[in-house]
């Protein structure tokens, strides 16, 4: 398949985990992919792997909470590949995050956390939308979570914000022919999850799922590619659960 031939995609937080799987899936279907991550070593390793398989990739260091850094990311994508068609806002503080409550978390940590996990999606969207518009339009996928519908302290609050941001931006981007949607994963088997979330809690959640197993990053990739592709050309402002049936919304 080559749904993304001659297209350019930026995937933030693609130096490992779910972002890496998104980037590799896009590259396999023909896209030139910018592997954007604050961990430049990880980004370079992923980019090298894609190029070894015959794909096109560029590793770029980005701090998604920093406007200048995000603008530089976009500029490098345009300079290397000629434009930007797609953005996946996947970068987040998760692996190793502090586990604390909204009433007690250190305020400086909270503000840094939200600057990445919520504001980062807006910062990166602002950095790329004009470049997408020049190409005739594009598509954006934000990474939400089922944490938006359960208690999950400031992590859950950030994902509530991502859902709202997705809906609000659909109104500002739609007339520019840019679509924006979000994926809300359930429990996904990643190193970040294993090292951060108490595994007793994860096990309890998985046991209650209709599809009673941990999800994998590959379970999410199909939805991401669908939402970016022309197959979803009349879909915008929506949040799609990929969660083994964890959340039921009527």
Automatic annotation (TrEMBL):
Coiled-coil region(s): none
GO MF term list:
oxidoreductase activity, acting on the CH-OH group of donors, NAD or NADP as acceptor
Record key words, sorted: Oxidoreductase
Q: Which InterPro entries match?
A: NAD(P)-bd_dom_sf, SDR_fam
Among CDD domains, the record links this protein to: SDR_c
Q: Tell me one GO biological process term.
A: fatty acid elongation
**Pfam families in the cross-refs:** adh_short_C2
Stored Gene3D superfamilies: NAD(P)-binding Rossmann-like Domain
Family as reported in the entry's similarity comment: Belongs to the short-chain dehydrogenases/reductases (SDR) family.
Q: What is this protein called?
A: Short-chain dehydrogenase
Q: Which organism is it from?
A: Mycolicibacterium llatzerense
């Amino acid at each position: 398949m080559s749904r993304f031939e001659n297209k350019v995609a930026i995937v933030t937080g693609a130096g490992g985990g779910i972002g890496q799987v998104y980037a590799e899936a896009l590259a396999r279907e023909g896209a030139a992919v910018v592997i954007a991550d604050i961990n430049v070593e990880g980004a370079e390793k992923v980019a090298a792997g894609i190029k070894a398989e015959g794909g096109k990739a560029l590793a770029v260091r980005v701090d998604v909470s920093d406007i200048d850094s995000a603008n530089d990311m976009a500029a490098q994508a345009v300079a290397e590949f000629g434009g930007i068609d797609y953005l996946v806002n996947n970068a987040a503080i998760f692996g190793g995050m502090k586990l604390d409550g909204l009433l007690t978390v250190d305020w400086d940590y909270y503000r840094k956390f939200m600057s990445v996990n919520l504001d980062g999606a807006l910062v990166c969207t602002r950095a790329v939308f004009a470049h997408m518009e020049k190409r005739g339009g594009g598509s954006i996928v934000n990474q939400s979570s089922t944490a938006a519908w359960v208690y999950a302290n400031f992590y859950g609050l950030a994902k509530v914000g991502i859902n709202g941001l997705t809906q609000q931006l659909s109104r500002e981007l739609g007339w520019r022919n840019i679509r924006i949607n979000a994926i809300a994963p359930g429990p996904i088997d990643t190193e970040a999850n294993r090292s951060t979330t108490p595994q007793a809690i994860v096990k309890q959640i998985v046991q209650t799922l209709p599809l009673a197993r941990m999800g994998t990053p590959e379970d999410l990739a199909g939805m991401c590619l669908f939402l970016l592709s022309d197959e979803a050309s009349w879909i915008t402002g929506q949040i799609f659960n990929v969660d083994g049936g964890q959340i039921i919304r009527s």
